[in-house]
């Protein structure tokens, strides 16, 4: 049944009509007294009595527990002595040395990161200022290509690609995207 959308039941009008003396014309219903469920009361009392009796019998006497402790102490004394273990590998490892061959990392050519290439120098300087606000230093270099003069905004040189990636992530956090890492020489 959908209780949220149900309509409230209409209230019933009281059917009592009063006479001249203020008495009801309908017969009054006799009062109903509730009967006490004696069977349930007896069962509850019996359960409580059984619970109390159980607690008293579980508690037990103090003499029996002392006797049990003495028996446990004798049983512990009857056990053989636990042998001491001597580990040999600890002594063997103290005299050993571990040798590890670590190959040297080969460094490739220096890395440069280009963040933009513009026809106007003012656009390149604007990007350079945004990079400076991110906390990095960049350069604007003019290069002559087939299509004329271009102004590139570059960062670097970096010895490793990891260092260049670190700066690129810093620029991405400053919302400067599109930077690419290349193996370039400054020549």
TrEMBL record:
Transmembrane intervals: 36-56
Entry GO MF terms: peptidoglycan binding
Span of domain SPOR: 105-184
Region (Disordered): 1-31
InterPro entries: Cell_div_SPOR-domain, SPOR-like_dom, SPOR-like_sf
Name of protein: Cell division protein FtsN
Biological-process GO terms, alphabetical: cell division
Pfam families registered for this protein in UniProt: SPOR
Residue stretches of biased makeup (Basic residues): 1-15
Alphabetic keyword roster: Cell cycle, Cell division, Membrane, Transmembrane, Transmembrane helix
